[in-house]
Structure formats: C-alpha cells, structure tokens
C-alpha cells in the first residue's frame, strides 16, 4: 500500500512537476473542506495542480491504474461536500487553470477554464457589454465548481441556472480521453446531450477542463422594489402573480422577518422601513427589474408596485442603487449570517412555486414538532427555499431534514435546487429517491467511470 | 420464429386489447415512414396503440422477453427516420395518449401526453394567456416526437428549443419500470439530469409517456420586418449585430433568393417588394419582434429597421399582420416546397452564428464542385442552416452531405440543429464524430437499454 502511494506520488510529479504535487503538511487547511457546515475536514493523500487538460488526463490514467480516488476542486465554496476529498484521494485543484480564454462578442459566448471565478468573469464580460447572468451568492466561486453543482442564484427566475448557460465542455473521462461536447450554438440534435449530463454531476462522471458559456447583452439600468408583507403565506401567494404579470423580474426573493433582521443587522444596513411597518411585517419580497431604457424601467417599477399592493403588501419601497446593492449583498451573505448565528445545517429544497404556501406551513409544523428553529429566505420565483436549521442533536436534525425533504418531494419538489447532494445530503437522497432512478444513475456512472475513481461516495455510494 | 411472432401478437392483444394491435394489411401506409425524403417505407410487424404508461411498460417487458425491437411514433412528421420501424418491430403509436392533462397557470406549466400535437397545445395555452413558444414548422407534430428529436424552429433565437422547455418527464425504461424525472420547477441539483438525457435521444433510451412543459406569458403584439440584402454574406454578417443589439427578436430567419421565390410562388404570396429591389436581392432577413405594449413594439421596430439599413439592407418593409403571417407560414412549408421541387435530401447543420459567412461560401464551393444545387433558408439567429440538396446520384449526394457536415463541424458546428440523426444521417454521424464520444454514447445506451430493444439502428449501430 505504501509502495502504491509512493509510486503514485512519483507519477504525479512526473505529470505536473514536483512543485505542483502537495502531500502531508504541505497541504493547506483550505484543501481539506468546502463550506458545508456538517462535514469533517479531511486531508487528501495528494493535491495536484495541473495546468492543462493533457495533465488532467494523465493524472486520471494514473489514478485508474492505481485505483486512487480523484476529487475535483474549484474554489471550495460548495455547500454539499462534493469537493471534500477522502484521505486516500488525489485532490485535483484547478487553481492554475484560471484563464478566461475568450469573450466572443459575435456569438455571445465566453470560453473559460474551470478555475476562473465568477468575479473574474464578471470583469471580462462587463468590458464587452455582456453579462454571464448566473449569480450564486459567492462571487469567489469557480466556474468549474458552478458547472459541477449546477449552481443557481438570485437571477435564475429570469435567466435560468448554470445548466442553461453551459453550451459546451471540454472534459476528461475517467479513462483518460479528452472529449469536447456542444459548442458555440444554443441547440443541437446530434446524439445524447453529454454536456447536460456532466453539468451537475458533482465530479462523478468527468473532470471539466473548459466550458463554453452563453452570455447575454448587459442591461443598462436596474431598479429594486422592497415590499413588506404581513405574513409568509401572503408573500407565497403573491409570487406566481408577479411572475405571471409578464414583467420579467431579474430577481424575486423572499426573506422572512428573522432572516431580514439578521442580515440587515450583520450588514449594518438601514432600509428606511418605519417601525410600525417593520413590526407588522413577517416577510419581505425583493423584486429587481432591469431594462436598457430608463423610461420603460420606471413604468415597470410602477406596475410592479401597484401589483404588490393589490397582492397584500403593507407598503412598497423603491430602493436607491446603493441601498439595493447593499441589500442584495446582505442577502448573498445570508449563509454566512446563518453560520455566524450558529446554524447547524442549511438546505435548499426546490418545489413548484405554487406550492410555497403549503410548504411554508409544513416547515413551521416540522420545526415546532421537533423544537427546532428553522428560518430562511430564498429564490421565490423558482420555488427554491433556503432554510437554516438550528438543532444541535444530530438525530433530531436528521429527522427534521428528512421531513423537510420528504414534504418538499410530496409537493412535487426535489431535495436540492442548486447546492447539490454531495456527501452531506446523500443519505436523504438514497432514502427518498425512486430506487429505479438510483439504479439507472448507478449504471450511467458505471458507463462513464468503470473503475469508480471519480469522487466515490459523492451522490451515490 | 413464427411462434415468437404469434406469441408476441397474443401478448400485445392482452395488454392493449385486440382492437389496438394492428398487423399485416391492417397497418396503414402512414405508419410505415416519417417525412424523411431518403428512407424506404417499412411495414412493422405490429402497431400497438397503448392508452397509458402501464400498458407501455407491459409492451416493453414483452418486447424485452421476446427480443423484439420497439419504435415510438408520434405524428410521423420527423425528418431523420427515427420513427421509421424495422420489419420485425413493434411500432408504439401514441395516438390515443393525446390529452392535455393540465395547464397550470400558477407555475406556467403544461402537462401533456406524448400524442398531443403542437396545434392542440397552442389552443389550450392561448385560452390561458400563455404560450408554448417552441415552434417547429409543422404544427401537426406531436409533443412526444418533439421531445424525442429535441425539435427547434423559428423562435429558438428568443426562447430556445424543446430541451429548454421540458422540465420533467414520465418515461418507461426498456426494462419496464416507469420513472418520473424533474418536475414543475426550472432547476434542481439532485442527481444526474435524466430529463435532459432522454430529450433528443430519438426513442433509443426510454419511451416518454408524459411531459411537463414550461410555458411563457403570451405577448399581445407582434411586428415583422422584411429586409432584402444584396448577398448572403451581408445577411450573415448582420445576424450577430441584430442579436447583439439587445432587442431580443422572436424570429430571425434568413431566406435565400431562390427559396424566397419558391415559397412565395407556392403560397401565391406578394410581399410588395418592387421589381428593382427584388432583382437586386440575393437574400432576405425576416425579423419578428413581440411586446405587450404597442408603443414599445413600434420603437423596437424602428430601431431594428434603422440597424438593418446600417448593416446593408437594400430596404426595409414592415409587414402587416396578414402578410407577416402568410410569409411565416410559407417559410414553415419550405420543406414541402423543396420536396415538391424535387429536392433529394435536406439537412440542418448548426454552427456558431459568426461562422455563417464562411459556411455559406463553403456551401457554394461544395455545390459547384459537385454540380449539385444547394439552396436554403434557416434560423440565422441560432446558426441553424436548412439546406435542400438537389442531386439524384446517391454517391455524389453522400459526398456532398459529408462535405457539408464536415465543413460545418470544422467551423465548430454539429450535424443537426433540430432534425436529429435517426437512420438517415447516422452514417455521417458515425464517420465524423469523435470515436470516444460514440463509445461513451454506446455505454450510456447500454445503461438504459441492456437488451437493445429501443429503436436499434437509430443514432448508433
């Protein structure tokens, strides 16, 4: 065994250069975990830092020969543990493959390496008058990680999620071949859609070494309406109506009163909501609109404000640019606020948006029945509910999560809208999902990764 | 062998009722082919007409036991032969599974059985103020067929294709299990995306028995600008600029002069283009816009007209509603016009839209080099080029198609944007595609269909 490890280390050094193979104490703490609240940090056997697809392919061939598990890592901002290595693993860190290879303004496409962060891509697209509209809270996240977990975020109600913006990939198969899928076009009917299968597969099917991403024209103007509501049920009922109005909101978030209090307190942010309204408000809707023409934007803001009042809002506040930006930033950091407040786990059930009122009632029932605090916010337009669960007892917490997931699934939903399954939600996934689908996914995994070296233990056992 | 056939027939009658199993001469001519120009009609051993997923599952279990191939059929309007049965096959016709099960206005979702046609769905969504925006030319096409081939059409430049509107499926696996994938939400990160894998798989992975489709708010107003251009290259260069302007066209089609002549002649349609302009025009762009507010629509029409003039249009014509509708209908029927004119094959290469000028030059070179007439039109905004090939000699025709596909692929494209591969383009697909990807697709096929009963010979050998 020790021989295999030594041999593997030597082989890795030959592939990427000795400087880019880390072992033992040279492996920094950052490499041992993602942002999941519930996982133990684990030091892998090796960290390798390849600089191109050929090196990744050689690493995978070596791993297949030696039967060594391989875990891919971007920025480590994931929330389900799919970038958490096992002790015997090779952790492939894409930190050196971090180039924006091209911003193609004719085809509205960006070509990026997996280590590029959302913040870096934003800089490049801004300069070209375009935008990559997928907007998960954490802008230090890498595009490779976003592809792996099919990251979502606040703008999905208008633009969709990572999956809808990945037009093509370069990927390395577990058997060491480099393939290219899709391309700089939005459609094809030419064989099975390998691109969409790899997106969201959490590093279990292939390692992505390049992504072709769809960009959108960047709109010049944005405006934000904040509407306090007397209760969460009224907010939930308002959501389908706002989407159905055809105004096409860029963002449609709900924030419950406890979460709003926490995130504005943490951000030291005053929104100008008078005391009597704040006292009466149990939940808030945040609606952001965008348009190239300020006149159209003003008309749309007015239409939304009128509609929200009809739908039971206590009041409407059109936030100025600075307040709006701060509120959205504070909302982005809701996870860290929850973490700081001592949350024991977070989940992101997704369900039909019409089922939100019933789900919120169910969540309250589950929380009270288990003497657990469950608070949250979420992408209301997508039916994607982010909940922070405060419960120290692991058995009670498991039961609470199980009931929260099962209730969401009974209402037609799924366990995760954008965080993924990873190690951390796998037990629930395997318990709750149709065994025929699990069996089919195992066979697909086998078709991609016959020796089972890619992120074993993630998603499936 | 005869015994197995008799036994299969008896078994099928037990499943769906004797009235819904057809054999021999009782099998109408329609069942023997789709609309592919190049395939020989073939009578299958059986046509069965199931009425629910359980019957489909029982048919597949019986087929697996007896090793009988199974081909799914919607309306038979496909263009690649993927609904063409083999002589020993069971053809599963979804004509009785033709109910629109629900129009869910809260979630903007339609739930349909596979035999529902686009025309029927349009009626239901119109009544609800919503629209299923995918718009392949043929409105008698079934949704099941659309899902199987990932159908596209003229509105893809704004709304995307079938793939982007299928949120979930009920599907029967080759082993007889009924699974449900996805749901009434636009995003999930909960295991491999089985929905997207089944979409576009041409009946080779599973039989779809229900689809959850995403709807959009229906816009109240549309307007159409027709712009003649001096040549195809100028049209091609204009396309990325129109898309990049951010005006968000609903339709952005190019039509070459020969095709425009043919489709307007066939439709007996006068567009009011003066003789001297028509004589100078080698190609046309058709730009359709939509908006709920007529004022905004008028402004956008003016902006597009100005832009087209800057980009080299000889003139701009804003078509009235009736002329626009007739032109779009005539364009939809371009396939039948080409067929009527004696076209020997049609193809629909897709490529990056910026590569259109180079591709058009290449097409001309290939056509002239092989003394073949190649004319066309297409979804310019998507880079999806529809070409009619007039060449009687099958060997020359094969060479022409091979060169057209290979040129498209060298420019970063793929063989088919929306028609699919089927039987008819398979030889080119297997010759031109990366063997590593073909091998991977075969393993995926094996994971879904271990006994190889689902549409054998389609897509892969």
UniProtKB/TrEMBL annotation, chains A, B:
Q: Which residues cross the membrane?
A: none
Names of required cofactors: FAD
Q: Matching SUPFAM superfamilies, A to Z?
A: FAD-binding/transporter-associated domain-like (SSF56176), FAD-linked oxidases, C-terminal domain (SSF55103)
Q: Does the keyword Membrane apply?
A: no
Keywords assigned by UniProt, alphabetized: FAD, Flavoprotein, Oxidoreductase
Q: Which residues form the FAD-binding PCMH-type domain?
A: 39-218
Under Pfam families, the record lists: FAD-oxidase_C, FAD_binding_4
Q: Name one GO molecular function term.
A: FAD binding
- Top-level taxon of origin: Bacteria
PANTHER family tied to this protein:
GLYCOLATE OXIDASE SUBUNIT GLCD
Protein's name in the database: FAD-binding oxidoreductase
Q: Which organism is it from?
A: Actinophytocola xinjiangensis
